[in-house]
Design a protein that fits this description.
226 residues, alpha/beta, Purple Acid Phosphatase, chain A, domain 2, 7-stranded mixed sheet, 31% strand
């Protein structure tokens, strides 16, 4: 399992290469913006046509992370489904895979802007959850309580490496807040130098880029030179 250990609000956390967050002392795995059923929604209601196996790919990655971390608790930080009705419209094989993953685990669904109501699946449905010094919710507040952990923005960082632009989904964190990357396949992302993110994060923010080997850099606050 490729992870990068870092400290946030005096807690030791692990950024996984997949974009999941693991909190060892709480045996807690946190994922954000799975957007399950994205291709199903596009096929039914129009929009860009996507490969039909994005939900299967996302759930397979989640299964691997649960196996490798041995997490006993899971928090999904909102936008777990791409639209409110998709939780019952997924293929039967995907629904079975999801319910199988939930078996025996303490599972919390945080409400997102794509899935604002209770999810009609097992688990607990909350607007936010506080565990110790960390508060989990979907969208970052303008003036958060220190220890806020959110998703929503699908952050990604772009930097120049040997004259070529390298872009990867990333975690962003400073002394106050932590924003997770989108976990779902084909979810896209928002560059860390976008004003929506630079207005939230402090000048000391660091980014942890996902990929085969996560690594940490100062958050790119401006577009890379072309």
């Amino acid at each position: 399992m490729n992870t990068l250990e870092f400290a946030f609000r005096s807690e030791t956390l692990h950024a996984l290469s997949s974009g999941a967050l693991y909190w060892p002392s709480q045996e807690l795995l946190v994922v954000s913006d799975l957007h399950l059923g994205k291709s199903t929604r596009a096929a039914r209601f129009g929009g860009a046509q996507l490969p039909p196996y994005e939900t299967t790919e996302t759930l397979t990655r989640l299964s691997n992370d649960l196996d490798s971390t041995k997490a006993r608790r899971v928090i999904c930080l909102g936008d777990s489904f791409d639209a409110p009705t998709l939780q019952t419209a997924l293929p039967a094989s995907d629904l079975l895979a999801l319910t199988t993953l939930q078996a025996g685990l303490e599972w919390v669904w945080i409400e997102g802007n794509h899935d604002p109501g209770p999810v009609q699946l097992g688990g607990t449905h909350r607007q936010s959850v506080t565990i110790g010094p960390l508060n989990f919710r979907h969208i970052a507040k303008t003036s958060p309580t220190p220890g806020e952990v959110t998703g929503h923005y699908h952050p990604k960082a772009t930097l120049s490496v040997r004259g070529r632009a390298l872009t990867r989904p990333c975690f962003l964190f400073d002394n106050t807040r932590l924003i997770l990357p989108a976990y779902g396949a084909f979810t896209g992302g928002l560059h860390s130098h976008d004003p929506a993110l630079t207005s939230l994060m402090s000048p000391t923010t660091e980014a942890i880029l996902t990929g085969p080997k996560p690594y940490k850099i100062p958050m790119p606050g401006r577009a890379p030179l072309s």
